[in-house]
Structure formats: C-alpha cells, structure tokens
Write a structure and sequence with these properties.
The complex is a heterodimer of chains A (100) and B (170).
Chain A lengths: L3 H21 L3 H26 L3 H31 L13
Chain B lengths: L1 H21 L3 H21 L3 H26 L12 H25 L15 H9 L3 H22 L9
Helix pairs in contact in B: 1-2, 2-3
The chains are: A mainly alpha (100), B mainly alpha (170).
Amino acid sequence: MVPTAYVLVLSAVLFTIGAVGVLVRRNALIIFMCVEMMLNAVNLSLVALSNQWGNLTGQIFVFIVMAVAAVEVAIGLAIVMAIVRHKDTTNVDEINLLKW
Amino acid sequence: MTLLLFTVLALIALVGAVGVVMSRNAVYSALFLLVNFATIAVMYFMLSAQFLGVVQVIIYAGAIVVLFLFVIMLIGGQIGPVTVGGRRYARLLALVLGAAFLLLVVLGLGAALPPGEAPLGAPQAGSVQAVGQELYTTYLIPFELASILLLVGMLGGVVLARRYRELGKD
C-alpha cells in the first residue's frame, strides 16, 4: 500500500502548481484549467483520506465536487465565450469593465 | 512495487501540471490537463476507489477537457507569452508565495497525520455497489440537490452562450 502521507504531499504539490498558475497566467482559459487542477488535487486528498479511515463519506464528497466542477466549467466557458464575443480577448487584464 | 507505480504516476501528474501552467498554446495546456486527469484516475484505482476512477475518466477526461478543447478551437488558440506586460516581479512573487503555501500545507499535514501506514485496503471499499448504497440512502438529498444544480447549470450555459438580438428587430 502507498502511505497516505505521500498521496497527501502529491496533492499539496499539485494544488500549489495550480495556485501559482492562477497567479501567473493571464489567459482566462488557462486560469480555468488551473482551477480544475486545484479541485482535482483536493479530490485526490479526499480519496486518500477516505481510504485511510475506511469511510466512504470522502468519496461521496468527491462525487459532489465533480458535479459542481462540471457545472462550473459549463458556466465559466459560456462566460468566456460571451466575453470574447463582446471584447475579443481572453486576457483577464483587459477585462476590467467593473474595475473602478 | 505499488510504491514504484505510485512514484511514476506522481511524476507524470507533476509533468502534466507544470505543462498546463507553462504551455504557450492553450491546446497544449488542455492536453497536459488530460494527462494529469488520467494519472489521477489511475491513482483512484490504486486507492481502491474504482467508481470514482471511472467517473474521473468519464467526466474530467471525457467531458471537461473536450469542452475546453471545443472552446479553444472556437475562439482560436492564439495566446501570447506566459506573462505579459511589465510585471516581471509578478512571476517571482507568485513562486515565492506558492513555495510558502506548500511549506505551510506540508508542515500542517505532518502535524496532523497519524504515524504509520494506512491500515486497511479492503479491495471492494469504493466499488459501485458500496458508493451507490451510500449515495442513495444516507446522502440522497445532496445527490438530488446536485441534479438540480446540474439542471440550473445547463440552463445558465444556454442563456449565457446565446446571441441576443437587439430589441425591436424581428
């Protein structure tokens, strides 16, 4: 068996890479992909802990997170499409209509 | 043996994650994301969560990455450099903050985890039957709420993505 700690550390590293990606990249689509990666990292840690404690609740939680992630991607990509139609850019620095 | 498999998978997942962040072309980012999702699906199988492994492949690799690719193809993959503008300090700051965050999380995990190996490993722990049993008895209400959420998301996607005609024309 793989020690749970290794899986949790991998999950932390993946989450950090995703967070750094959100900070560094300026393309809305790639920021979305990084957010998905962070959700996946948290899912991995939930599954690992569910395995550690022999409790299925973590897996149910991951299932719900996947449903929310699917909805989030559908809505988010629709918003990106609407913005591209409106402003012809996916650069989040140029999408500053609500910025004071 | 399992540990070796885990190490190889972890390296592939890390390469995929770094590829998503570093790629100049959004199509390559989406394909690296696919690599990342697939390796995590294999890890779910290793952690005796078979149902979630299959769901991961179907939802993430099958639906979400394909949706990303559709949108990238629709709006064009021209992306530009990894960072733009005169903000060279931004990348450095992000790396420092990321390293600090990682240190914090790993230290917290080290303090929170019990010592020793994972105890069990019942091979059928995450089977479709077990997860379905829980999902349709104990967690029935969250499950139904998730279906309502999916319906609302579908309607929202349609409303956001449609083209509005100007009022007064046909």
